[in-house]
Amino acid sequence: MTDSKHSRSIAVIVSLLCASGAFAQQGDEMQTVTVQGTSSNPGLGLTRQSGTASRLNLTAQELPASVDILSADTMQARGDLLVKDAVTRSTGLTDISSPGNGVAYSARGFTGNGSIALLENGQRPQVGSGTATYPADPWGYDYIEVLRGPGSVVYGSGTTGAAINAVRKAPGRNSSFEAMAGIGGEAVRAGVGGTGALGEHGAFRIDAYADHSDGLIDRGDARHGKVLTSVRYALTPDLDLDLQLDHLEQKPQRYFGTPLVNGGLSRALRDQNYDVSDADIHFADDKALARLTWRYSPALTISNELAYMKARRNWRNAEYYHYDATANAVERSDYIAIHHDQEQTGNRLEARWNDGANRVAAGWEAAVINFVHTNNSPYGGSSTVAPTGFDPGVFDSPDPLLPNFSTHTVTNALYVEDAYSINDSLLLLAGLRHDRYKVDRVSLLGAAGFSSTLQANAARLGLTWKLAADTSLYGQVSTGSDPVTSLLSLNLANSRYKLTSARQVEAGVKQSLAGGKAEWTVALYHISKDDIITRDPSNPALSVQGGSQTSRGAEVTASVALAQAWRLEANAAYTDAQFGQLIESGNLSRAGNRPSDVPKVSANLWLNYRDHGWRASAGARYVGERFIDNANSQAIPAYTTFDASLGWNYSRNVLVQLNLRNLTDKLYASTSYSDSQYLLGDRRHAELTVQWRY
């Protein structure tokens, strides 16, 4: 899928479809659908509608919540090649991804895919064994929205920290074509995309992308490819049909970190990869969607969305490394082989009412998820290699790869959301949601199975007060819930636990000045989370629900036009997160400690220039110190990296851009994989891209 022959074939098909679309008849066009993004407009997009923080398409300034909108143009100008590159430039989001969890973040004091939801076009696959694999790259997406804080009213459990939604480029009847090719950083990449008319009443869009990287470390070979297809057709003047069919494949870098030397990072080991030579990581995702939208009246719209997703994930690696200073050798263990087979079918029926001062959305969501987990537990196997110049060897574990368990999960949710304009200055937003999960687990190794039913309620009440046309104050209280572990991999020990509960109070201000030349937002919040797993104080051998965590903080985001061609963008987040009650093994209290992977301070700064066919950006990213464990016994050092890009419009349709990463060649760790190994951030590198738009 990712080879050059397939990429060329896809490019030819997209080009021909776009050309044929130009000759389609333009009469009796389908209903116009507006896709809200920031497009090429600079700033924070406060006047743009958001479909992530609410189902009522309120503007960012109307919403009593914190939302960042990252447009395709912004991501392109900064040279963001991965979704996580773009997301971590938003306010308060930190990347904690590893080959084991796929893509994962930290936000507002909460971490991982059990607390940060990843969505595409509002569709959310359930998380299997803590792993989420897409969206991975930004090609084919119009914009990415980041909702900070509990989003359970909109998306259900598992969203206490944030919800990240990548919104696809929509089909359009006006033909267009775009392409991109890039080389550098020991990688090559290419993407094509096009849209156009389909008959007299429809439109299509196809986006395809592929890359191949030799990596910035030894044996860092990685591949990635995808095809996204969309069709929109007006069956009648009041009834639209939307179809999507996608295929995505990833073979990420088979790198699980670099061992610490004397407790710190060693530049001498920066390029080393201690995985075995035949290591394997492979993710494959297939998705299909069909949506009917019926405009019953100018005020009432009814839609039904049926979605199917299938994920296959494979790992075969030596994952644990420890440097032995006495022997000057690296000890390897945990020869782990795992396979996930996940299939999810879901349906969402929703009605929206928009008449006068009142806007209401109500719906029912249902899904069935089948998950099979295969592994070689207890993951035996070990070896010792020299720190450099070693033979990596092959995967050799005494434990066979066997099907371990399967789960059958049925989810149901009912929700309602209401935005009421009390007057021209006051908007009241309220929402309620009830989620119910039934999990049936079957052991494939002869152990006992079980059934478990979990449920949660979520609510939100917010008020936005428009002081002036460009200034608003807001406040909200909201609740949410997270599972104590991935629902699809729930085991017998965790089956007796209920979902954790979270409560948030947030207040803020949003303002646009001088016709949008300056925009800024400030948010203050306090989140408390109860029912996390702790040890029983009276019997430390038992695990119970009774732990608690709090998080409070402040977030500032700003975008200012310094002059006609110059714009400064900045954000900063301060997070004070700590455990209120937590007892771990050994009857050790962690009360007052900061949760792992949570920096107290993170910030981004970008200076942009665009004039006379030239564009340039320079930026800095700061991530504060983070602990790797709840005991706060070991920390990943803070780091600052600097990036830049320079673009030149060769013509109206062609842009040549040079992207520079980690300008100072900073040696830093992006996250930890164990107490003896950290995953290193990319070293300094450059990439040259050429982009065509017609």
TrEMBL record:
For the TonB-dependent receptor plug domain, which residue ranges apply? 60-162
Where primarily located? membrane
- The positions making up the signal sequence are 1-24
| Bilayer topology annotation | Multi-pass membrane protein
Q: Which CDD domains match?
A: ligand_gated_channel
Domain TonB-dependent receptor-like beta-barrel, which positions?
Answer: 235-663
**Keywords of this protein's UniProt record, alphabetized?**
Cell outer membrane, Membrane, Receptor, Signal, TonB box, Transmembrane, Transmembrane beta strand, Transport
Quote the InterPro entries the UniProt record gives.
Beta-barrel_TonB, Beta-barrel_TonB_sf, Plug_dom, Plug_dom_sf, TonB-dep_rcpt-like
Out of the domains of life, which is the source? Bacteria
Cellular location of this protein? Cell outer membrane
| Protein family (similarity comment) | Belongs to the TonB-dependent receptor family.
Q: Which PANTHER family match?
A: FERRICHROME IRON RECEPTOR-RELATED, TONB-DEPENDENT RECEPTOR-RELATED
What is the recorded name of this protein? TonB-dependent receptor
